Amino acid sequence: MLTISNLKKTYPNGVKALNGVNLKIGKGMFGLLGPNGAGKSSLMRTIATLQDPDEGAIVFNDLNVLGDKEKMRSMLGYLPQEFGVYPTSSAEDLLNHLAILKGLTDVRVRKETVDRLLELTNLSKHRKKNLGGYSGGMKQRFGIAQALLAHPKIIIVDEPTAGLDPDERDRFHNLLSQIGENVTVILSTHIVSDVSDLCQDMAIINNGRVLVQQSPLLAIEKMKGKVWQKIFDKSEVEGCSSKYKVISMRLTHGKVMMRVYGETLPDNGFVSATPDLEDVYFAHIRSYIQ
Ligand code: ADP
């Protein structure tokens, strides 16, 4: 269990990136969902012991993380948002090199580990290829392979699917969910479907604060009977955002499908809609649910 208490961070330019974050994260896949600038990376870097908070505590099982960063690092796999690779190195060579840095000094054990991770991330057949020639998805899978080198108990992945095509994204999702069966995986993302596809627990974060922590299924269940939809002509849409608690507006066949939040049926021919995680997300981000 990872327990985060009252974490605060203000950058020198005055931006309050973390404003009293509290979370309890157990085994399995945990989604940290929020818009750009919400504070996700600041939180991920703090848990990964790469930056200090101004206030607050992080405890992983019995370990005081901020008091013993080395110990935390030995249990941690981290895939940062910007993952740089040596373009002229092959996957096999770089993984082998990183394994040595991680303390895997026994040649046989190291070879077994490298082989197993290349296999797991489906990169075995590209092991000799230079990383500079890898696609975005292959680089991300290589990032996971390096994050898994030292049998981590906790894995942090920051915005991993941005820029991946749908096939690569599916492959990456499958890999993460396989890993998430045994350890804690924290997946930070602004993509709602990453969380609905993968995570059994999640938090929505905005302006450095946790708005809600709940299982996605329960959060959706609680939205039942509170989401309504109606198709408008484009010309009718103006003014709607002041009249209704608008969750989303989508173009469909040249018209606008509007979804709104409300405890009771709004006027003008709205019908009840089946809620999804995107409804939950926007209802919280737009403070319709406090
Ligand atoms: P997210 O990962 O959710 O996009 P970040 O944690 O990167 O959010 O950023 C939260 C806020 O802190 C943003 O307003 C961002 O501009 C600001 N910020 C992030 N890193 C720094 C930094 N090193 N110095 C100053 N401001 C920063």
Short recap of the structure:
The chain has 290 residues and is an alpha/beta fold. The chain has helices at 40-47, 69-74, 91-101, 107-120, 136-147, 166-179, 192-198, 216-222, 240-243, 277-285, and strands spanning 2-10, 16-25, 28-33, 55-60, 63-64, 76-79, 154-158, 184-189, 201-206, 209-214, 227-232, 245-252, 255-261, 271-272.
What do these coordinates show?
With about 290 residues, this protein is α/β, with parallel strands linked by helices. The chain has helices spanning about 40-45, 70-75, 90-100, 105-120, 135-145, 165-180, 190-200, 215-220, 240-245, 275-285, and strands at about 1-10, 15-25, 30-35, 55-60, 65, 75-80, 155-160, 185-190, 200-205, 210-215, 225-230, 245-250, 255-260, 270. Strand 7, helix 6 and strand 8 (about 185-190) form a beta-alpha-beta unit. Helix 3 (about 90-100) crosses helix 4 (about 105-120) and helix 5 (about 135-145) runs parallel beside helix 6. The mean pLDDT is about 90. The structure holds adenosine-5'-diphosphate (ADP).
Strand order of the largest sheet: 6-7-8-3-9-10
- In CATH terms, what is the architecture of the largest domain? 3-Layer(aba) Sandwich
* Overall radius of gyration: 22 Å
Which CATH class of the largest domain?
Alpha Beta
Query: With helices defined by DSSP (H or I, 4 residues minimum), what is the helix count?
Result: 10
Helix content: 25-40%
Bound molecules: adenosine-5'-diphosphate
Looking at the structure, what is the overall shape? globular
Q: Note poorly predicted spans.
A: none
Question: Structural class from helices and strands?
Answer: alpha/beta
Strand content: 25-35%
